[in-house]
Amino acid sequence: MHTIISTPSVFSCKTPTAGWLNLAQIRQLQFEEQPSPVAVVTWHNGDTQSFFGENATAIMANWQEAADRTCNDYRVKNRR
Fold first, then answer.
1. Is the peptide bond before 16 cis (omega within 30 degrees of 0)?
2. Which of 3, 8, 23, 46 has the largest count of CB atoms under 10 Å?
3. Verdict on whether the full-model pTM lies above 0.90
4. 19-22 and 12-15 as β-strands: parallel, antiparallel, unpaired?
């Protein structure tokens, strides 16, 4: 299981059937790919919510994209 903690800015995520999510409101994301995709979200307020199948895959893909953008921006801005 993968655990990723929080993003520093606003990132939106459109899921196939669960609507729009604000990834910036996620405190913790746990993702399991096998046997079928499951994403367990702990929101900023402490509530948890589970997403399955295509919704879980969309959340994880958008989370990774946001993390890649954030990390790359951070490296460029803090280069000496």
1. no
2. 23
3. no
4. antiparallel
